[in-house]
Amino acid sequence: MNARMLAVLLLTPFAAAVTQAAPILIRGARVFDGSSMLGQRDVLVRDGRIAAVEPNITAPAGAQVVEAAGRTLMPGFIDAHTHTFADMLPQALAFGVTTQLEMFTDHRMMAQWRAEQQGSAGATGRADVFSAGTLVTVPNGHGTQFGMAIPTITSPDSAQAFVDARIAEGSDFIKIVYDDGGAYMLNRPTLSRATLKAVIDAAHRRGKLVVVHVHSVKYATEAIEDGVDGLVHVYADTDAHAEFVALAKRRGAVVIPTLTVNMSVTGTAGGATLAADPRIESLLTRNDLSQLQQAFPTRPGAPARYENAADAVRALHAAGVPILAGTDAPNPGTTHGASIHSELDLLVKAGLTPAQALAAATSVPAKAFRLSDRGRIATGLRADLVLVNGDPTVDIAAARSVDAIWKGGVRFDRAAYAARARATRAVVIAAAVEPGVVSTFDDGNKTSRFGMGWMVSNDDLAGGKSKGAITVVDGGAEGSAKALRIAGTIDGALPYAWSGAMFTPASVPMQPTDLSAAKELRFWAKGDSKRYRVMLFAQSRGMTPITRTFDVTEAWKEYTFPFSAFGTDGKDIVMIIVAGGPAAGPFEFFIDNVRLQ
């Protein structure tokens, strides 16, 4: 396994073919315009825009005519809460999501997407993205655990400079993390309330919307009291809602409840039913199927309950607080695109009518996030359209029966996408490996008990300039003879910049291996008193690195990493990298006595 292979995995889009078409006449469909059902209409599309919505339109010369009687035409869906990587955007479009509101990504990716969307051809083969870019959090707070080196904030007096830096990077809106994890028995630092208020005010001075990540009613209440425009989760730690609902209504806040993830984080895979639905399953990759059936590990005594979140949505909606459909993909229990359909289902079960749920995924987020060119079917707006069999304003599940998708007037080739998705399922898992020693390095080599041994992995061929080397040196942990030295320089040019030692458990590159007989990875380490990373790649996690950090000292210390901490059961591990970073600069550390147990 070399860096070129890793670069392909991390950076190559899962592209989908598109077919150019203009003008287009969609004839005789029931039209849900984003707010209400108009009844049977014809919709004419020219140059990527909706030219007319009327009965009995005469087809222009050369028009492609789509006979749509008995079907329903809707605006493309807007997923109001995602976390996005380049290869996930065609996937979103394949399920009818034409726009994503992205709640934390690397600002360089954000800039690339914006340039593509604003180009002359647009980005018709994938969902559009509008992004918060770098979120607002404190050192070691939520958002710092993903292996990306990001700026953090510590005091109110730096709020304006911090917000201005995000705007300079291109953030479309500002997202704040204001939550200590207590609802789920976690213990994370978070902003002071004074800093929260200062950031909200700083963003509003620049005309930017502000949304806040919360999971408890305390933090949700304080955020709305301090002027936030919306919440990007709903609390689940209490069944008392009246006071909060009245406050949210009075202050004009919107709520993106992410019920699918609320279900997953309380122990039930939020997308499991999607994997069993043939209307969805036929377009799912192997990774999607696994991801949808995962849930977060729960902690005994955690006050969060899914029923609390659903009841909060029911109360908020009844009071007239705008509810927006968002999935928080690609967290456990979710996947891009498909999960909007589980979110719609859960919103209906939480009290919205099917038409109101559809509005929560179209016109309501468009209005809340000032996207005036989309979210509705009306003359002059973008031709982001989804045609489905049946009537989802009566049965929300009919939204899953997608017949056609247009993005900017260009029809998406779902059949080609489905064929590629099916091809990903033909994955061979290497034989299971018993727990025990992986490497001791005492023979002076970089070998391992199984697999391909240890080799250097740098980010150079993925576009970075990090450099490093690994060597076996004298003096190991627990009095052993040898250890592996990992040293180099991280240049920080990539969101996942890395250099380190890579272990491939299979005997050939890129073959997943079943390590589930073990529950955890263990090794000893020492070094230059910096923070380092374990980057684990699993086939079922989409081959995006799941990262956990560890802090070394000058003395040998044993470190333990349960597979569950990476969101996997270990059945399909492709590679493990012990790497320098995320901080840029030189590094040097040593590992020894690597084992699975």
Description:
This protein is of the alpha+beta class. It is built from 16 helices and 27 strands. The strands form 5 sheets. Strands 1, 2, 3, 4, 5, 6, 14, 15 and 16 form a 9-stranded mixed β-sheet that branches. Strands 17, 19, 20, 22, 25 and 27 form a 6-stranded antiparallel β-sheet that branches. Strand 11 (210-213), helix 6 and strand 12 (230-231) form a beta-alpha-beta unit. The radius of gyration is 25 Å and the shape is globular.
Which descriptors would you attach to this protein?
597 residues; 27 strands; 23% helix; globular; disordered N terminus
Please give the structural blueprint:
Blueprint: H1 3-11, E1 18-19, E2 24-32, E3 37-46, E4 49-54, E5 64-67, E6 71-75, E7 77-82, H2 89-94, E8 97-102, H3 107-118, E9 128-131, H4 159-169, E10 174-177, H5 193-205, E11 210-213, H6 217-225, E12 230-231, H7 242-251, E13 254-255, H8 259-265, H9 272-275, H10 278-281, H11 286-292, H12 306-318, H13 339-349, H14 354-360, H15 363-368, E14 385-389, E15 402-407, E16 410-412, H16 414-423, E17 436-439, E18 454-458, E19 467-474, E20 482-490, E21 499-503, E22 520-527, E23 531-538, E24 546-551, E25 557-562, E26 573-580, E27 585-596
Parallel strand pairs: 2-5, 2-6, 7-8, 8-9, 10-11, 11-12, 12-13
Antiparallel strand pairs: 1-16, 2-3, 3-4, 6-14, 14-15, 15-16, 17-27, 18-21, 19-20, 20-27, 21-26, 22-25, 22-27, 23-24, 23-26
